[in-house]
Amino acid sequence: MIEQATKKLVLAHLWVAFAAFALACVLGEYQVLERSGFIEALNSAPVYFASVSTHGVLMAFVLTTFGIMGFGYYFAVTSLNQPLWQPKLAWLGFAVALTGVVLAAVPLLLGKASVLYTFYPPIIAHASFYLGATLLVVGSWLWCVIMVVMFAQWKKANPGQPIPLAMFATTANALLWLWTSAGVALEVLFQLLPLALGWIDTIDAGLARTLFAWTLHPIVYFWLLPVYTAFYVLVPKQAGGYLFSDEVARASVIVLVVFALPIGFHHLYMDPEQGQGWKLLHGIGTFVVALPTLVTGFTVIASLEIAGRLRGGQGLFGWILTLPWTNPMILAVILSLLMLIFGGFGGLVNASYAMNAMVHNTAWVSGHFHLIFGGTTIIMYLAMAYYLWPMLTGKPLFSNTMALCQLWAWFIGMVILTTPWHVLGLLGQPRRISTVVYNNFAHIGLETL
């Protein structure tokens, strides 16, 4: 059982997460209208880049960090069947992180922090943006401490027993975040913030990119591990079966964390500051990290097949029809895996040095990123929220049908959004630009044929 006080803590995190999500969606709609060229009055490069920067930060940092902390607290107390350790520390982490969000949001919305999601120098934001980002990370570190301590407490009280899978994956994610967030924290504290405050006159832009790359790709697995946790722990039960293999699930988490830690530098293949040997090692690591993704896909599908056959499914594919498709969690996991398959293929392209040279600074990367994050990750966050809402509030969903329609709409929208980006990227459209004449790229594509 989960205590009422812990329910309030989880709900507080989810409210912040999805409030950020709602605002980010509005900004995304604006970007679509601006890029379409249908409304001339909306064409403004400064407003566009302020919108993109705010959208990216809200989605990639605020929604995810608060959502993951909220999911983590739920998994910790329910899987370990013990009270939350130091609730006051958890609320302190929430307050510090929320303060950081407010400090960063003001310059973002005023157009004084239009540095995009990566905030690469030499473009510099207002100092309060960097201070806010730092506080958000510091608040999340307190969550990490709570997860690690609760893990250790349970192991001490249950010697020789395997930690419940949900807590195993959550603690692994906390350790991953402690490591990967250190890169951007060092960049902000010792380079960007002092420069924004006027304490120093210049910084090493190459070092700044290297420190951000430390965080840039491992953060993807920080986002994904709660999704994998839901795949392993929630989905089999919701489908009416059981997990295909607990051991395989744990092994995939370990491989994911170990090889996710150093691979961010494959985003710097074209940067002269990085040695060729390091680029090779990071390329190999990026291919290795695809293995736990494949294993996860197999494990989830096998678990769904078990559930389908327990529900009376016959024949080679008859089990698919017997699954509870009206359950948002089951629908979401199928749609999530479909996007993961195609997004993962794009990741292999990005990891390949020669192909990366062609697509790394094009719309292809935006398409790949949105398919993995906006598609695979967010659709499962939505399903997890639908799953938790009745448990946390004691109220049923307003409409299960609306939830199913929303998941289908999100999936279809992501397919429509990301497919042209991949195509235009192959045709050479650069990213990080406010306008583009699409007919030019269509003309280039016809000529190449």
How would you characterize this protein structure?
The chain folds into 2 domains: 1-216, Cytochrome c oxidase-like, subunit I domain (Cytochrome C Oxidase, Chain A, Up-down Bundle); 224-449, Up-down Bundle (Cytochrome C Oxidase, Chain A), CATH 1.20.210.10. It has helices at residues 4-36, 45-80, 87-109, 127-157, 165-196, 205-216, 218-239, 246-260, 276-288, 290-310, 318-322, 328-351, 353-359, 363-393, 400-427, 438-448. With 449 residues, it is mainly α. Helix 1 packs antiparallel against helix 14, helix 2 (45-80) packs parallel to helix 4 (127-157) and helix 7 (218-239) packs across helix 14. Helices cover 77% and strands 0% of the residues.
Average pLDDT level = 90
Looking at how many chains there are and whether they match, the oligomeric state comes to single chain
| CA radius of gyration | 22 Å
CATH architecture of the largest domain: Up-down Bundle
Characteristic key phrases:
mainly alpha; 449 residues; Cytochrome C Oxidase, Chain A
Question: What is the compact description of this entry?
Answer:
This protein is mainly α. The protein is 77% helix and 0% strand.
Topology (SSEs and partners):
Blueprint: H1 4-36, H2 45-80, H3 87-109, H4 127-157, H5 165-196, H6 205-216, H7 218-239, H8 246-260, H9 276-288, H10 290-310, H11 318-322, H12 328-351, H13 353-359, H14 363-393, H15 400-427, H16 438-448
Helix pairs in contact: 1-2, 1-3, 1-14, 2-3, 2-4, 2-5, 3-4, 4-5, 5-6, 5-7, 5-8, 7-8, 7-10, 7-14, 8-10, 12-14, 12-15, 14-15
